[in-house]
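Annex B. Sample input.
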Amino acid sequence: MLIKRLTSMLVLIVLLFTANIVDAAESSTSLAAIGQKKQGESLTIQGTTSLQEVIVQVLRPSQTLLEMDQLTKAELLAGKTFTLPTDAPLGSYTVKVGSGSDVSEATFVVVASGGGDPDPGTDPGTDPGTDPGTDTDTPAKPDGIGELALQAVGKPDAAGLAKVAVTLEALDQAFANVQGAASSMLTLDVQKVEGAFAYETTLPAAAFTAGGMVRQLTLQTEFGSLTLPSNMFTQEDMAGTASVSITLRHVEADGLSEQAKAAIGNRPIVDIHVKLDGQPVPWANDHTPVSVSIPYQPTLTERNQPDNITVWYLNEKGIPVPVTSGKYDERSGMVTFSTTHFSQYAVVYVTKTFGDIAKFPWAQKQIEALAAKGIIAGTSEQAFSPATSIKRADFVLLLVRTLGMTAPAGESFADVNASDYFHDAVQTARTLGITQGFGDNQFKPNQTISRQEMMTLTARALTIAGKLTPARSGANLAAFKDAADVASYAAESIQALIQQGIIEGSDGLLQPLASTSRAETAVMLYRIYHRSGGM
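Annex B, continued. Sample output.
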């Protein structure tokens, strides 16, 4: 048996060393990044492969053999750990994994056990600290923020997919290098590969389990980036799971309706999906949104109307659904949005207006912007009815939608039916503590909402979302002529909104007892959308 295993390994070694004569584009084996190691330190070789067995070799800087083993597909996925000798030569090591034409390589650097460069002392003319103000290296990132560059393995496959992997050890080391914050953010920067149309990044499942320190990963590729909360998967998802693979793919508009293709034009479309242990799974988590950013260069017209740049979700039938959080960030050059499920998403430029809003110039821009985002709709295709009072249920629906708020299912009001279009939003508002109703388990959904009720609910929602600080003294409120009309329950909320510039009043009046019009609602929602990062 031993002879048979040794013979098998020798054959695979020959194939491994001759792999360079075969086009690496067919490689299905990928390795996780290892990073820098010290003499005597342990390292883990981990990756994915379609082969049943692979040979693993670790070569010293002189290209002589340091370590060799034969691993099964499952063993490679779980990771092979070994310890470097305490006198290991300093310098760059090579890891080769595979068989025949399917070979992957990775490198790592060994430094002295006390730290420092692989070859300390080669530049004795530099004296660190003698002129600390003239360091020309890249400035250190702010506390709590780090970056780890990842190289794709080999060329893209026939479908344009480039594969990348990273070990838990490499992540832990990268996070350990992030200084000075109770919560840490780490960007995994996947380097561009010529000819790639998609990047699949495989991470250890342990990266998505809760730990003592809050960790946030951002996966960055040429086609976009994803900010991945550590709790985006449930405990049930992670039970028995070893690896999570996330793919971000650039796709064309083929297969969409002619109307959708015309609206999207040549703007980017991305597809995001997940595999657990190599098996595709649908990801959706209503309570843990993932932030997505897509690089985009607007036209001159679009730059002049940035509110109209937004995002569509393309469902399984290719039908577009507005993503209300979609916006263009001029500083980063990105279109950003948050989502609670992975699918296809497209950048679009949407214009929408109504025939009855020209006489409301103070609200026209806000109405058109929110309509373009899909947050607010007209009373018909052509009319918005800006002067019409808004009902309590409709305002809560728009408030929750604007802030993208979700909550687990909770208790419902007796006068809100499960079949009502506003049921979920009102239930969310109750669960989060935005509204308590009127007593006797009543919400009164069809009653018009007063301005002070509207302001109170808005302040509560912003406070829960972490977008509003508590009110200070009441001097600002007292400056309004009708401050005495403000109910005691609403005073603190209105004061906080005034102090942060969300409420301005008109002619020195707040009109707290007046009904709230649809135009006033649009202006309020636009302001809080902007404040919450939506625009």
